Amino acid sequence: MTTDSSDSPAPTSVGIQARPLTPAVELHHRIEGDPAADVPVVLIHGVGSSLASWDDVVGLWPAGRPVVRYDLRGHGQSPAPAGPWNIDDFAADHVELLKRLGIGKAHTVGFSLGGLIAQRVAAVHPELVDTLVVIGAVAGRTDQETNAVQQRLRMVVEEGPAGAARKSVERWYSKEYLAEHPEVAAETVARMAQLDAVAYTHAYRVLATTDLADQLPRIMAPVLAMTGEHDAGSPPRMSRLIAERTHGRCVVLSGARHTVLQERPDEIAKEIELHVR
Q1: Which residues sit opposite 228 in a β-bridge?
Q2: Which residues does residue 253 pair with via DSSP β-bridges, in sequence order?
């Protein structure tokens, strides 16, 4: 169980000026193809996951497509500085990685928390974003949705990642997928039990307290917003809002919940491929 505070703060008001709380960290990353040969796709995973969450999607793209994916701070093999963190800490890590790799502009793709990070990068550093894809991303939470995610944050603080997973796995996966893959629920809980509980809580707090809906009109890159039809935390209404405020395109994956990278990699890969051409 994490020793982090159990207090759940109200949603953070994020101004357009970047204000990270900690220095940027050197992110563990993986490069496929040659990022110097073409505009690369940079993939940002969600809270509690790692760069491996993109395996099924990347495996469906043409060989040679330049792809960069990385572990968020506190995830996978990336370092976990002392918290708390905010959305600009994650954005600064992203920007620093691109600078270190000599990447001037990228097709930026983010899932869940990664979708928030991608929104922030596109709003604050438009020169770095050629196209933007956000998947299962939040924007414009209602009061009811805000209260619900605050309750989930308290659950994370009190029960740790594995405890939260036990109570959330049926929210993340569709009933059909769990029926076809009965091992997934136990595997997910076991994987979450291996996470750094404090780092996970710091990251989840950013997800739970950040909303960038007011900054969406600042995004100039072409936008694709995708989500599952039955995603409770990132419902289709949010993806439609993102698309509307950025003059982008919205795709809703029929029957899916949150874990679309795992359940629907073929559709995700196809839609990203169409968007970044």
Answers
A1: 253
A2: 228
Instruction: List, in sequence order, the alpha helices (H) in 4-86.
Output: 55-58
Segment holding 98, helix H or strand E: helix 87-101
Provide the residue count of the chain.
277
pLDDT over threshold 80, residue 17 = no
Please give the backbone phi and psi of residue 233, each rounded to the nearest 5 degrees, phi first.
-85, -25
Q: Which of 221, 231, 232 is nearest to 119 (CA)?
A: 221
The CA angle 259-261-265, to the nearest 5 degrees, is 130
Residue pair 136/106 in contact (Cβ under 8 Å)? The answer is: no
Tens of pLDDT, residues 208-232 = 999 999 999 999 999 999 999 999 9
What CA–CA distance (Å, rounded) separates 73 from 88?
12
Strand order in the sheet with 129-135: 29-32, 67-70, 41-44, 106-111, 129-135, 223-228, 249-253
Note the helical H segments in 102-235.
113-124, 143-172, 175-180, 184-193, 197-209
Q: What is the pLDDT of residues 66-125, one digit of tens each?
A: 999 999 999 999 999 998 999 999 999 999 999 999 999 999 999 999 999 999 999 999
Query: Model's pTM, two decimal places?
Result: 0.93
How far is CA 13 from each of CA 30, 149, 206, 211, 234, rounded to the nearest angstrom?
33, 16, 12, 8, 19
